[in-house]
């Protein structure tokens, strides 16, 4: 049996997010848009074909598509507290609260290629935070495309081709000529349509899982909600997007980074200096100015702990 520490994820957010300014003064006259991009949704669908799977008790792990950057887990038992731990080749532990009983759920292989360990834990009845191992399996993984883990839907970025957020992303991308324009359109829409929920930030519980469509419908959310919604919208447009969780100074926070074919990965701090892009955090424009964010970032460094 193993004693698991309860982690409290405080996805609180000082009112910060990334701002992307696409103005003539920023870009100058050298950027020429050659042709419109295809705005049709490109939703990848994770599957569990059973070609490589492992079953123990009520848990089944399907790693058939690990080369695509994900594994699938199906827990069909009745234990009310189940955890799934993914240990990356670098030894980083990703621990998930299993919530989707009786169906397969996709979990990203964010650590790239290498040897992973997957463990399912079931709570011991009557014992707080005491768990027994239900399944333990090591798998050697070769991820064929580094972007795949950040294009497929997964546990924290959950969407389908019928999702409202996917349909909205297609509308927003309709007039865009390049991926960079899509990022701008989605960013401005999310930051302008979703209000930061301070009460939720104060009361959110450990194990909280965001829902992109629920955030879109409610029009409110915390940083985790902003990041999940924007990640889903951009992934549905074929733009690799990482939902990242870590620290800004001492604050536990969620943000995103994305890969733009024209410029590469967008991560770092929040500005374009004329030659490179830096970190894009989709909750900034909910109530703060570019100047305030840059001032904040002078003394606060984004440190990534997990990528989904």
What's the gist of this structure?
The protein is built from seven helices and 16 strands.
Keywords:
308 residues; 5-stranded antiparallel β-sheet; 7 helices; globular; disordered N terminus
Task: Walk me through the structure.
Strands 1-9-8-5-6 form a 5-stranded antiparallel sheet, with no helix packed on it. 41% of the residues are buried. Helix 2 packs across helix 6, helix 3 packs antiparallel against helix 6 and helix 5 packs across helix 6. It is α+β, with helices and mostly antiparallel strands and 308 residues long. The N terminus is likely disordered.
Largest sheet: 5 strands, antiparallel
The low-confidence parts are 2-34, 268-280, 284-290
Q: How far apart are the first and last residues' alpha carbons, in Å?
A: 28 Å
Query: Structural class per helix/strand content?
Result: alpha+beta
Gyration radius (Cα, Å) is 20 Å
List the helices and strands and how they pair.
Layout: E1 2-3, H1 24-27, E2 53-56, E3 59-62, E4 70-75, E5 82-87, E6 93-97, E7 104-108, E8 114-123, E9 130-141, H2 164-173, H3 179-193, E10 195-196, H4 198-203, H5 212-218, E11 220-221, H6 223-236, E12 241-248, E13 251-260, E14 264-272, E15 277-279, H7 290-298, E16 302-307
Parallel strand pairs: 10-11
Antiparallel strand pairs: 1-9, 2-3, 3-4, 4-7, 5-6, 5-8, 8-9, 12-13, 12-16, 13-14, 14-15
Helix pairs in contact: 2-6, 3-6, 5-6
């Amino acid at each position: 049996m193993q004693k698991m520490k309860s982690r409290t994820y405080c996805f609180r957010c000082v009112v910060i997010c990334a701002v992307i300014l696409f103005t003539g003064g920023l870009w100058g006259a050298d950027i020429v848009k050659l042709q419109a991009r295809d705005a049709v949704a490109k939703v990848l669908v994770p599957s569990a074909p059973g070609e490589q799977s492992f079953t123990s008790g009520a848990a089944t792990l399907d790693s058939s598509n690990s080369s695509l950057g994900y594994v699938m887990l199906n827990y069909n038992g009745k234990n009310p507290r189940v955890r799934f731990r993914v240990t990356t080749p670098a030894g980083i532990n990703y621990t998930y609260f299993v919530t989707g009983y009786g169906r397969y759920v996709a979990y990203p292989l964010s650590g790239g290629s290498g040897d992973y360990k997957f463990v399912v834990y079931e709570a011991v009845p009557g014992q707080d935070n005491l768990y027994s191992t239900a399944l333990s399996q090591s798998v050697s993984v070769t991820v064929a495309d580094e972007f795949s883990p950040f294009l497929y839907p997964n546990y924290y970025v959950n969407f389908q081709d019928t999702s409202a957020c996917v349909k909205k992303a297609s509308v927003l991308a309709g007039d865009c000529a390049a991926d960079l324009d899509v990022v701008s359109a989605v960013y401005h829409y999310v930051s302008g349509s979703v209000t930061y929920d301070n009460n939720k930030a104060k009361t959110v519980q450990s194990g909280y899982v965001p829902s992109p469509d629920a955030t879109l419908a409610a029009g409110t959310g915390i940083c985790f909600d902003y990041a999940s919604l924007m990640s889903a919208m951009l992934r549905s447009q074929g733009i690799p997007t990482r939902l990242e969780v870590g620290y800004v100074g001492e604050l536990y926070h969620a943000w995103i980074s994305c890969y733009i074919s024209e410029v590469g990965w967008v991560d770092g701090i929040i500005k374009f200096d004329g030659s490179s892009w830096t970190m894009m955090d989709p909750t900034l424009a909910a109530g703060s100015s570019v100047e305030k964010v840059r001032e904040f970032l002078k003394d606060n460094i984004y440190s990534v702990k997990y990528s989904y």
